[in-house]
Amino acid sequence: MASRWLGGKSGGSSEWAGFIDSGVSFEGKITVSGMFRIDGEVKGNIIAENGLLLGEHAKVEGQIDANDVTIAGRFDGQIFAKDRVEIQPKGVVTGEIHSPCLIIQPGGILDGQCHMLSSAGESQEPIAIPIRPGVHA
After folding, report:
1. pTM exceeds 0.70
2. Half-sphere exposure of 86 (CA within 13 A, CB side)
3. pLDDT, greater one: 137 or 80
4. Domain presence at residue 27
């Protein structure tokens, strides 16, 4: 069941800790030890030991610290992910993402900055890829 809540992602053995349904507004700090889903409106900091899913109706503003973050709704703020961040086709992120892996599905939007971090335990020099405006392949 958890893989269906995460848009088909499988392989996670974590238990669901709960969710905030659409029509619910929350302001403050959320700390969860399992997987968590948000479909309502949240302003504040979210700390999720495992995964966090922002559903299509989610509107979240603040800071996220999690292992794995999947966004199908709207997010404004900073994301710190230890494993990966995925922006799904209707997802919109405004702000900063800090993660070793970023996946943006066709239709997903990132308006801000992404800082690609090395995976935990790896010591690698950062790779800079220059992008020149006006050059098309």
Report:
1. yes
2. 17
3. 80
4. yes
